[in-house]
Each structure stands twice: as structure tokens, then as C-alpha cells.
Amino acid sequence: MGFLLQKIRADNAPSDVSTSQRESSIIKKNTASEEITSKEQIVSLPNKNLIHSAVVKKRENKELPNDSSFFADLKPVQVISNCFNEGTVPDFGLHIHRFIGENNYVRSCRWSPDGNWLLTDSVDRITRLFLYSDSTLNLQHKVPLGGLIYDTQWAPFATQNCFLTTSQGQPIHCWDIDGKLLASYRGINDMDELEHAYSLSFSLDGQCIFGGYRNRLRIFECERSGKQTREIKTFVKGKFGGQKGIVSALSMCPTFGGVFAVASSNGSVGLYSTLTNSCDCLLNGSSDGSAVTHLQYSSDGNLLFAGLRKKASIQCFDLRMPGHLLANYQRTVETNQRFFFQLDPFDRYLYSGSSTGELLIFNCKINVQLAEDGKEVEPTFRAKCSKSAVAGLSLHPIHQLVALSTGQRIFPDLLPELFPENESSSSSAHDQSVWGSDVGKGNGAEGGEWTEKENGRKGRRSELDNSVKLLKFYE
């Protein structure tokens, strides 16, 4: 009996070996196929090392012409206005549209990191992408948004080729240069409700998105759309200090990762860190509570520039001595718009728009050395660019080009037109007295001037200049 059992086991042994070999070979094939698919997935994902290794030509450090006549005669090399006058502005049944027509003023403009694209946003709730090729801008894509646009931001690296938008009642959207939606980032509050961001910024490595909300910051991971991953409160009810109100502007420190400046609608500027998740230093930007609308660090991270709403200065803080106001760069800001400014990559010149339609250029190297603490600094150069306000401004990262966005909200005197019985006779005469025979032309009046009328009231005659303009300082 034992002999028969051994014989049976011997006969079955090879088959067991073959089956085990077959099973092992199947396992190896499966593991090999899994390795192949995993490699394919890794290749299909964006390589973070490639993002940082992209080489982009930098802007040359050239001195501007030291001639006032050059800036007096400076003319734009290109003006784009037709695409902003296509009847895309919703009128909401307002009476003002009967007299001034469409007023689609351009709120901001931003160059992409590689300088190939220009992004604009305007009152019609549309962001427009212009391709810069052969020294000209050409409209390529339009991205309509659901509400009033609060802020836009390009990704910091040229290889990412995407930008962010935030608008009223909408989450933060990420778009590619073809106008396709890539991801959405939702700021969710304690009641599980969606809130919209008022300001945007990328981290230095481009892996995180910072959104400014009311009384708090929310941080999102770029690779994962959806709800925020972290939250930093700028104000807590019942506690002393903090920054109460809307986070109106953000700026990342270029030398210390995780350190950033936060501006609030109450006029304060705070320095925060992702290590502490709290405010490390608080600067009083405005004594009367005017909102801070724009922030920018110098390239070495030692200086912080802050622009205020309806304030005739850009404040410069020396962060080596926190709270120390180094200088006030003077500019004319008479409207409630957000007026942008920008330092060149070498911290030599500070460019800013103004409500008088001028491009203002400050020589920071000279003025900071000569100025006393907190002293007012006047512009070194002035260039008249528009009859309307110059709110948006962006320096080309490679060429000696400046992109400007112009336009502003107009408030004409509508009292005579509110009465139908006077509409047939007095309204036409009133329109000519306010706007001129040809939208402000023919009266010899400059755009934006306030003129006294026969009835003692004031009317505004101004031409609508809603456009994007390119200025070149060198050939």
C-alpha cells in the first residue's frame, strides 16, 4: 500500500512542478505588465524637474533714455480696442447705457512667464488671451466667466502654460492657453458653502495656490482639485489684532519659501509664513483705513511695495526693519480702480499707471538713496498714454515692452435725462454739452476734464479709451 502511494506521488510530481512554473510565469508576466503600465503613468504625469529646468531668456538691464522729450513723444507700437467694443457688456437695464453706450474698460493685463501670451480681463466678464508673435499681439481665445472678475494669475513657470481666474460666485478655475478648463478649486467655509476668492497667488515652486478670502487664506494643491487643504485665519472675532476684512492682495517673498505678504481691505499689510500658519509681523499701510490693492516684493526680498486705493502714493517698506517706511512714490489715483505697478527684474525702475492717463517711471536706485525716511518721491519720467485711466500694467519678461490696459467707469450727469418730457429737446443738447459733438471731440476739451455747465451743475466730457497698448523703449 505504501509502495502504491509513493508511485502515485512520483507520477504527480512533474505536473505539480509544471503548474507551479506556469503560475510563477503568469505572476512574472503580470508584474512585468504592471511595471510597464506604472512607467507609462509616470511618463504621462508632468515631470516636476522639467518645470524648474525650463530656460527662459531674461530681460536685459538697460538704462532708459535720460531725455524728457523722448517720453513726451512716446507713442504706442500697437493699440488693441476693437475686441473690447463688441457689445459683450451686460447693461442690466441701467439708464447710463443709453447715453455713453458700451463701456468695457480693461481692468488688468499680465504677460506669461515666457512672454508669448498676454492675459487681460475686462468688465464684460471675459478674459482674453493674446499671442505675441512677430512683434504684434493677436487675439487667440476668449474665456467667459460667470461673474465679475476679481483677479487673474499666471503659473510661475513657462512649462506649466496655465493661468488662474477667480470671479464672483465661482470657484478658482485653472485654464490652459487653449482656453480649456483644467481644474477647479473650491473654497468651502464652515457651513459647507462655496465662497469666491478675491486675490490669487502661486507658491514659488508652483505646487500650491493661495487664495485670499474674507478674514482668511485658503491653500490648495495644484495637483488635486477640490476643497482647500489648509486654512490660515487673518482675523478671529473676539481676539485683539489681525487683519479684518477682505484679503485684497498677495505677494510671495522671492528669497524665502513659504513667506508671503497679505494685504487687507482695512489698510493693513501682514507678513505670514506657512511654518507658523499665522501673522508674524503686521504693518500699518494706511492711516485712514484705505484698502491696499496691490503688493510686490523686490527681487532680494528686502523691500515691499504697497499700493492703496485712491491714495496718491506707493508705499515702500524696508523689511529689514519691519514697520519702517522707506519712501512714498507719488502717483495720481482718483478712482476706485486697482492701479497696478511693477518693478523691473533688477529693482532699478518702478513702473505705475495713474488716473491721469500717464505712465509713471521711478528710478528706485537714485531716489531711495537721496530720499529721507518716508519722504515723497516724484516720478523720474512721465509718458502720456491715454485720455482715460491707465490701471493695468505689465512688463514683458524678455523684451523692452510695457503692456498697458486703459479705461475707467464714467459717471455723466443724468438728471435731465431722467425726465421723459425733456428727453426730446434737452437730452440731445445736454449730451453734446457733456460729451462733445463727437464723443468729446470738436469742443477743444481734453478727456476727463470737469466743465461747468449753464445750469451750475458739473458734467464730465471724456472719451472712452478701452484698449490694450504696447509701448517699446528700444528697438
TrEMBL record:
It comes from Heterodera trifolii. Residues 422-435 have a biased composition (Polar residues). It comes from the Eukaryota. It holds the Pfam family WD40. Belongs to the TCAB1 family. SMART domains: WD40. Residues 450-462 have a biased composition (Basic and acidic residues). This is WD repeat-containing protein 79.
